[in-house]
Specification:
It is a single chain. By secondary structure, the chain is an alpha/beta fold. It has a single domain, classed as HUPs (Rossmann fold, 3-Layer(aba) Sandwich), CATH 3.40.50.620. 27% of the residues lie in helices and 23% in strands. The strands form three sheets. The chain has a seven-stranded parallel β-sheet with strand order 7-11-6-1-4-5-12, with helices on both faces. A three-stranded antiparallel β-sheet has the order 8-9-10, with no helix packed on it. Helix 2 packs across helix 5 and helix 3 crosses helix 4. The termini are far apart.
Length: 260
């Protein structure tokens, strides 16, 4: 039996107009549509495949405001068995280090053999949280997996780099992060959507995890956004009429931009 915890994140829709809060320069997560991070869908899919090949449960964990429950709900609709939503006003503005602390404390309260992550969140893109959580849990981390296989307590991954491919094997409790190369994540079926409504979701606060509010939030963050400026609207492109000298004009333009 393999019990897997998958950490997921609720992120602003990349196709929406994303911005920051004018009050504290943190990402605006309330006035924009959000969804389960696409990269986390691959982690949920891999966890489901492992459990479906044997026995066990998949538990999804998220940290975020009330709307973050939608990320848990989507994972449950895909087939996960239960969820945990850590919500506390003090978490607002937390950086990767504080987020990893909250996640690690939540995972410690759960029965698990493996912990799965997406390679990064689509709103942050740092890719460091899986390793930070592994360090806090005192576990090995096998990261950026393009392929995952589990046999008993042994996990094998293939990591595809720009110049080489690595085969990595580890045993025991592990933290695993997967890339979008692992294969398409499944779409929730109607049956899955209906079944998700009956699946348990626990709601925890920092006090439930024994985390001091002073260790998280914007005041504890290592970095802060000092200011931001909205992206200027797109302007019409320059039309170059080719009168036999189009090639020369193109080269001149590229040279002016220091492309050639």
């Amino acid at each position: 039996m393999t019990n897997i915890v998958v950490a997921v994140k609720y992120v602003p829709d990349a196709t929406a107009d994303r911005t920051f809060n004018s009050s504290d320069n943190t990402v605006d997560r309330e006035n924009v549509d959000g969804l389960l991070s696409e990269l986390d869908e691959y982690a949920v899919e891999q966890a489901l495949q492992v459990v479906e090949a044997g026995e066990g449960e998949v538990t999804v964990v998220t940290v975020g405001p009330a709307d973050a429950a939608d990320a848990v709900r989507k994972a449950l609709q895909m087939g996960a068995d239960k969820g945990v939503h850590v919500e506390d006003d003090a978490i607002h503005g937390s950086d990767a280090f504080a987020t990893s602390l909250v996640l690690a404390k939540a995972i410690e309260k759960l029965d698990y053999d493996l912990v799965f992550f997406g390679m990064a969140s689509t709103d942050g893109g740092l890719g460091v949280v899986p390793t930070l959580v592994a360090e806090r849990l005192g576990l090995p981390a096998v990261t950026f997996a393009s392929e995952v296989s589990v046999d008993g307590d042994t996990v094998k991954i293939r990591r595809d780099g720009d110049a080489a491919t690595q085969q990595i094997e580890a045993t025991g409790k592990l933290v695993v992060s997967v890339t979008d190369q692992t294969g398409e994540a499944r779409y929730p079926s109607f049956k899955g959507i209906m079944a998700a409504k009956k699946k348990p979701v626990e709601e925890w606060t920092l006090s439930d995890l024994g985390v001091d509010a002073s260790d998280v939030g914007l005041d504890a963050a290592w970095t802060k956004v000092e200011s931001f400026t909205e992206r200027p609207p797109r302007t019409a492109g320059e039309i170059v009429t080719d009168e036999g000298d189009g090639g020369s004009k193109l080269v001149e333009f590229l040279a002016s931009k220091k492309f050639v």
